Amino acid sequence: MSRVMDQLFTDGLFADEVVLVTGGGTGIGLACVTEMGRLGAKVAICGRRPEPLKSTVEDLASQGIDAFGAPCDIREPEAIGSYVDSVLERFGRIDVLVNNAGGQFPTTAEALSPKGFAAVVRNNLVGTWSMTHSVATKAMIPQKRGRIVNVIAQVIRGFPGMVHTGAARAGVDNMTKTLAVEWAVHGIRVNAVAPGVIVTSGTKQYPPELLDNAERSNPLKRLGSAEEVSHLITYLASRYADFVAGQTFYIDGGASIWGEQWFLPDDLPKYPPYPVPGRG
């Protein structure tokens, strides 16, 4: 357990609670399930690839964390429904949902095909909505309690070089605000976090010059870590934040107010479709 975590969070904070994290096998999702699991949560993870899920569940179990993992493509509503049912069959409830799964690729707007735009929106916006709706209607609304944290991206100044995910993430930001109001009557709190450039397994697939530029242009002159994002998500998912609702918290070293657009080099179209930094 990190020193920061020891200072911020009380042992047993999530005792008897079930936390579901999409994309929980790697990156920010993995940091979240590890942190909340160490704080007493039972954790459920999903993703498209079974191998990271199996490895993560085994690792969590070795730490004494009760974990369940199964493949689920959030682009498929029927798959989501079946997965949520399996989590409820295993644990009986879902107290926290962290919508972390997503994917996109850098491209200029003029080079983006309709199919590419629709695929990213389907994954990042529609998939997030489908998982949220399923968990809420099957678990949180009936139990009159729940906390939802949506992981989006630093889109407050637009997202040149990723118009598709910028549009999708802005949609999730608005959905966060809307559901926070509509579902308050059910005891459900909904918030979001918007990471900047975060060092994860996904960032290793990016051209080094892009990450070097991101580090130089950040006011803090460094990139963030998955654990730092996890601390914020853990706070929003806990009882400590029970009067926080409908908010989006930027965690980007000040990049969103500095305004540097590190990810838009002049020759961007030559790059293949890498996953966006901060996810994966």
Concise synopsis of the structure shown:
The chain is of the alpha/beta class and 280 residues long. It has helices at residues 3-8, 27-38, 50-62, 77-91, 114-143, 163-182, 208-217, 226-237, 255-258; strands spanning 18-22, 42-47, 67-71, 96-99, 146-151, 188-195, 198-199, 224-225, 248-251. It starts with a helix and ends in a 22-residue tail after the last helix.
As residue ranges, the low-confidence spans are 1-6, 270-280
Sheet with most strands: 7 strands, parallel
Number of helices: 9
What is the name of the CATH architecture?
Answer: 3-Layer(aba) Sandwich
Mean pLDDT: 87
CATH topology: Rossmann fold
Helix/strand order: HEHEHEHEHEHEEHEHEH
The CATH superfamily label reads NAD(P)-binding Rossmann-like Domain
Strand order, sheet with most strands: 3-2-1-4-5-6-9
**What's the gyration radius in Å?**
18 Å
Number of domains: 1
Task: Give the class-level CATH name.
Answer: Alpha Beta
Structure class: alpha/beta
Helical residues, percent: 40-55%
Task: Estimate the global geometry from the Cα principal axes.
Answer: globular
How far from one another are the termini? 22 Å
Question: Which band does the percent of strand residues land in?
Answer: 15-25%
The count of strands amounts to: 9
